[in-house]
Amino acid sequence: MARRSGPTNPFYIVLVIAGIVFAVTACAYGVMTFLAMQAGYADNKPRLLAFLEEHGGMLLTIELGVLAGATFAAIGTDGYWDRRAAEKKSAGATRPTTIHE
């Protein structure tokens, strides 16, 4: 696998973080749904699951929106970051070198 030399698109970092947060939230929401079907869930609700029961749908929607926005931003700015890396590389290649004897 070839390694990119040059600046990393910052939207990729946002994508990774948002993806991890979304995955954790979706798993917790699934656990909450599973536990809600069990007897005695209403009596002993953990705070995280109570929060997800009340705000989980909106939280997942917001996280999905952030993922979509970051995806479009990453795709849209990829050319910019590639050109910037190529310009830096070509500027470095034309720089005169000095030899100390």
Largest sheet: none
Write the element-wise H/E pattern from the N-terminal end onward. Answer: HH
Number of domain modules: 1
What percentage of the residues does DSSP assign to strands (E)?
Answer: under 5%
Low-confidence stretches: none
What is the arithmetic mean of pLDDT? Answer: 84
Let me know the number of strands. 0
The number of helices is 2
Task: Describe the protein.
- With 101 residues, the chain is mostly helical.
- The protein has one domain (10-83).
- It contains 2 helices and no strands.
- It has helices spanning 10-36, 47-93.
- The mean pLDDT is 84.
Quick recap:
73% of the residues lie in helices and 0% in strands. With 101 residues, it is mainly alpha-helical.
